[in-house]
Amino acid sequence: MKILICEDHKIVRDGLRQILQQLEGVTMIAESGNGNEAFEMLTKNVFDILLLDISLPDRNGLEILQAVKIKWPATNVLMLSMHPQEQYAIRALKLGASGYLTKDTASEELMIAVKKVSAGGNYISQSLAESIALKTGHDSARPRHEILSCREFEIMLKLSNGKSLHEIGNELCISDKTVSTYRGRIMEKMMLNKNTELARYCIENQLI
Fold it and tell me: What is the pLDDT of residue 130?
């Protein structure tokens, strides 16, 4: 089993490495500190599992997830996040993630998740399974951000973090005008008017 860890904090990578080294069958554990480094490593080696942090300095983890599933579909992606499961997990699973864990997960649960994902299965915690079941039965109570498309969701997070239309356009390789169009759609769907209101919503819903 070859595993790639994509996480920007070295102390977290070191901790994950120590846990993963306890697993039988692990032949390689590589590390990357951002999305671009992860892409370089995936180009050079075939990895069975990518442990992917959802918050990275250069790219959003969901954006990286999408790219990985297109270019390296055989690589199973296990998302890691400091955000509550229900905020990001369902969206990540829809994009092709094989599992989702929060960073306060016990080491035993991480090893169980990696084993299950390496065998081709999916892993979600019991609390997440319950949350999904609850939301399925109460669609009318869904948070507003769940109706956004993946690109709209990504741009909403960037706007909420104070990035300008030009900065977002450069990061996503799209024009400022296109970003502005996305912003308009986001505001309409979210029933908000200002970026500050968007930021407040994201903070209150623990999205940033």
Answer: 67
For 70, 155, 166, the CA distances from 159, given in Å and listed in that order, are 26, 6, 11
Winning range, highest mean pLDDT, from 56-60, 121-125, 167-171: 167-171
* Predicted TM-score (pTM) of this structure: 0.70
Per DSSP, 119 falls in state T
Q: Where are the beta strands (DSSP E) in 8-119?
A: 28-32, 49-53, 76-81, 99-102
Question: Residue 196 belongs to what domain range?
Answer: 143-204
The token duo for 183 is 């912003």
Same-domain check for residues 125 and 182: no
Same domain, 29 and 106: yes
pLDDT at 135: 59
Tell me which DSSP letter residue 140 carries: G
Q: What confidence tens digit (pLDDT) does each residue in 38-82 have? A: 999 999 999 999 999 988 887 888 889 999 999 999 999 999 887
Q: Could you tell me which residues are beta bridge partners of residue 49?
A: 3, 76
Average pLDDT over residues 6-35: 93
Nearest alpha carbon to residue 87 among 44, 146, 175, 139: 146
Q: Answer whether 78's CB lies under 8 Å from 103's CB.
A: no
Task: Give the Cα separation of 145 and 164 in Å (integer).
Answer: 20
Query: For residues 64 and 8, what is the distance between their CA atoms, to the nearest angstrom?
Result: 14
Residue 159 token pair: 């706007």
Query: Does 110 share its domain with 30?
Result: yes
Are residue 130 and residue 154 in the same domain, yes or no? no
Mutual angle of helices 150-160 and 176-190, in 10-degree steps: 90
